[in-house]
Amino acid sequence: MVPATLVVFAILGEFVGRGETTVFDDHVRLLVLAHRPALLLAAFRWITTAGSVTPMVVYAVVIALLFAHRGRVLVAVTLLVAPAGAVVAYLGLKNVFARNRPSGIGNVIEGTYSFPSAHATTSAAVCCTLAYICWRERLLRGPAGTVLGVGAPVFIGGSRVFLDVHWATDVLGGWVAGLCIASLAGLLYQLIRRIEARRPFNEVRT
Q: Using 50, 70 and 90 to split pLDDT, how confident is the model at 109?
């Protein structure tokens, strides 16, 4: 997944940098703005708040502390790779692309560059990592893992377009970047599992 996501992000970033996604982004924006009932606006405002960067970091830290309490310190560290990597990635990439937000409320309220979406990047990185590791640790069943790893980032990222604070390709770029970070965290987790498998059981749990 890591090479694939890097290639996809590079291609998308090239299109965004050249302004070749403008027609697509404008079309999606106008379509969304034409269909925004008050009830959905209220729901997406709640979703975007619950799925913002700070809460995502808190969710990851809380779960990491639970793993550390159970003696899985290395797994806890792996979980923290996701939010840390996401923050570093979107801050750096935003400054590289320096893309303006939509001309409406996005430019007025948010006040930062647009590509990639911080919400989409962080939610994809954290939720996918949590879903995968908790599933592997048998703390989540398949359907619950799918809701966390797929459903949550989709709704959080979608809320940014619906609230007119991001272009559609900002969110797509954020999802791809977040998935890349989650894949790296997954690779680290696999490495830790192999290391633990070579150690005596009582050493792994203490």
A: low
- How many structural domains comprise the chain? 1
37-71 confidence digits (pLDDT tens): 989 999 999 999 999 999 999 999 999 999 999 88
Q: Is residue 30 part of a domain?
A: no
Residue 94's domain comprises: 2-15+38-197
Residue 48: HSE in the Cβ half-sphere, 13 Å Cα cutoff? 20
Residue 23 within any structural domain of the chain:
no
Q: Please report whether residue 31 resides in a domain.
A: no
For the whole prediction, is pTM greater than 0.70? Answer: yes
